[in-house]
Amino acid sequence: MPSDGIVKPYLVDRERVHEYYTSSNWVWICTDQRVLKYKEGEGKAEEFHDISLEEISGISYVNSGREDWLIIGAFILVIFLVAIPVFSGTLSNFLPLAIAILAGVVALVYAWRGSESVYFVLRGDGLIQLEEDKWKINHSGGGDHDDAVEFVNAIRESL
Predict the structure, then answer these.
(1) 3-state DSSP call for residue 40?
(2) How much is the pTM?
(3) Domain 4-64+116-158 has CATH 1.10.1740.10
(4) Cα–Cα distance, 8 to 30 (Å, whole number)
(5) Do 70 and 115 touch, CB atoms closer than 8 A?
(6) Across the strands, what pairs with 130?
(7) pLDDT level of residue 75 (50, 70, 90 thresholds)
(8) 3-state helix, strand and coil shares in percent for the chain, rounded to the nearest 5
(9) CA dist 38 to 41, 74, 75, 139, 150, Å?
């Protein structure tokens, strides 16, 4: 559970915390009355948002999948890496080009690994619908999937 110092100032009388989840940027808290999200910035900066459970009509799960064109590009670069010395018949001046191609392969594979977007989004009418990005519980960049599922299930049980 996040420290009481973070949560307590934002709770109203007799409000009980059911579950929490820490993503890469936010601490999410589900109480018996609402869902809160909180993050600290540099210095004394902080950001806080909350939404009543009554405003939530559902929760969606989104997994965008990975951008396959990135891995295809890496594969094409590997083919060039093999083909250039075979068809040119010489290895002179090939090392700088090989290093550049390998760097491109590494960059494309790294980008491919990070291209998947996985999140839950709280659904409802009014502000929650207008501010959809604010109510995305993103766990592709940090946080554990099982912890996120447990948190979302706590919200569902509270609805």
Answers:
(1) strand
(2) 0.65
(3) no
(4) 13
(5) yes
(6) none
(7) confident
(8) 45, 25, 30
(9) 10, 39, 42, 15, 18
